[in-house]
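Protein modeling request. Please complete all fields; requests missing the sequence field cannot be processed.
Requester role: graduate student
Desired output: 3D structure, C-alpha cell encoding
Chains: 1
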Amino acid sequence: TSGAQQAFDLIARVLVTPGRTTVAMEDPGYPPMRVPFAAAGAKIVPVPVDAEGLVVDALPRDAAVICLCPSHQYPLGVTMSKPRREQLIRFARAHGATIVEDDYDGEFRWGPAPVDALRTLDHSDVVIYVGTFSKCMFPSLRLGYLIAPAWASKALVAAKNCMDWHCSV
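Delivered output (169 residues):
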C-alpha cells in the first residue's frame, strides 16, 4: 500500500456499509486511522484505553470492526497485555468482528523481548495487520502493507486495483 493510510482506506472501503457498520476505536487513539472509516460512513464508537490497552469490556456488542495499536498504543505508548489480547480475540470471534491491528512503531521494540502481534495469536482469521517501512527507511517512501485473512484478500486487491493498481516503483 501507499503507507498505512491507504491500508486503512482499503479496509474501510471493504468492511464498512455506510450508516450501518459500527467501528470501535481506541480513545485516545491514532487520528489518521479514524478518518477513512468516518469517510466510509461508519458509526465510530470510542473505547477507553487503560494500563493494559484497549478495554475489551467497553466494546460495543455490535462492533463489526475494532481498530487499535496494541504493540505501542498511540498516543499513550501502552503495550496491550497478553491476557487482554486473548480477551480481544475471543470477543472478535464471539461477535463476528474484524480486528484492524496497526503496528504503529512496529519497527522499534522496547524491553527485553518483542511482543507478538495479534495476527500471530489469531487462529480464526479475525485480524488484518497493517504495517509500514516509514520509520526504518524513510516516510517519503510511502510504502506500507497489510496482511489479510483469505476471506478479505480478493476484495482488498480489487479495491487497491480500483485506486491505483500498484504502489510507486
